[in-house]
């Protein structure tokens, strides 16, 4: 004899598992800790300062 399965519970469990998998993928894709963000901001500031320092002055006419 076959096992009785509640289809609503099965559907909800499947949706919950898919949502958990999607959340894990998003954490891996977008998740960065505070130190990594600070490092990126510092690198951007260094790059901007280097770029601004390399600009040539245009003569005022």
Describe this protein's structure.
The protein has 61 residues and is mostly helical. It is built from two helices and no strands. The chain is rod-shaped and about 95 Å long. 0% of the residues are buried.
Strand fraction: under 5%
* Cα distance spanning the termini: 96 Å
Shape: rod-shaped
Low-pLDDT residue spans: none
Helical content band: over 70%
What is the SS-derived class?
Answer: mainly alpha
Report the biggest beta sheet as strand number plus sense, adding barrel if it closes: none
Pattern of helices and strands: HH
The number of strands is 0
How much is the average pLDDT?
90
Number of helices: 2
The radius of gyration is 27 Å
Ordered list of secondary-structure elements with their pairings:
Elements lengths: L6 H24 L3 H20 L8
Quick structural gist:
The protein is mainly α. The protein contains 2 helices and no strands. The model has no long low-confidence stretch (mean pLDDT 90).
List the keywords.
single chain, 61 residues, mainly alpha, 0% strand
